[in-house]
Write a sequence for this structure.
């Protein structure tokens, strides 16, 4: 009887081991199929042949984040380090554009008014445009950033949370152009402004 009992335990243990091996094999085949399917995707999307992934993605993220850190701190020397001499900023309005010096001045004033300025929930994507026949200013490496810029009013401590979409052109370790999109009305309303319709 003891032998039969031992046999049952052995059979149960062997079945358990076989089941684990089978599960591991299924997982391995699933992961292999997933990675093969990812690798077999075309590098170019039809209609977007003049776009390619940016091989300097990580370095450009570091450049943009260093520039933003300097901006948030109102650090003039840091901004001068990371902003290209020909830097131009556009947005959020269609007619809003700023030179490098105007951008630096604006961030210095912003840092005087607000504190604890930081970026949260950041998502990045980067690509290169190479279009000889198109509009030359678009050519180059672009880093797109989605996230929230959060800061506090120094006067009353009010926290303002602004969702942003930022598109930066990066050239040789410097930010050459910035395109800024955010809800200006939401920012002003969080600061206590009221939208009053005309009578």
């Amino acid at each position: 009887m003891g032998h039969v009992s031992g046999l049952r335990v052995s059979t149960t243990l062997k079945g358990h081991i076989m089941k684990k091996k089978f599960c591991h094999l299924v997982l391995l085949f699933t992961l292999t199929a997933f990675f093969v399917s990812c690798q077999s995707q075309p590098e170019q999307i039809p209609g977007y042949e003049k776009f390619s992934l940016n091989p300097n993605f990580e370095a450009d993220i570091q450049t943009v984040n260093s520039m933003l850190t300097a901006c948030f701190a109102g650090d003039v020397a840091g901004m001068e380090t990371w902003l290209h001499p020909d830097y131009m900023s556009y947005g959020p309005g269609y007619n809003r554009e700023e030179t490098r010096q105007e951008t630096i001045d604006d961030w210095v004033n912003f840092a005087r008014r607000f504190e604890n300025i930081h970026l949260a929930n950041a998502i990045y994507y980067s690509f290169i445009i190479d279009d000889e026949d198109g509009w030359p200013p678009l050519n180059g490496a672009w880093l797109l950033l989605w996230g929230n810029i959060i800061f506090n009013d120094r006067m009353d401590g009010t926290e303002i949370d602004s969702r942003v979409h930022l598109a930066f052109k990066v050239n040789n370790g410097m930010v050459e152009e910035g395109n800024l999109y955010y809800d200006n009305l939401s920012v002003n309303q969080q600061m206590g402004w009221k939208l009053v319709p005309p009578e």
Residues 1-18, 20-42 have pLDDT under 50 and may be disordered. Residues 1-41 form one domain. The CA atoms of residues 189 and 196 lie 11 Å apart. The chain has five helices and seven strands.
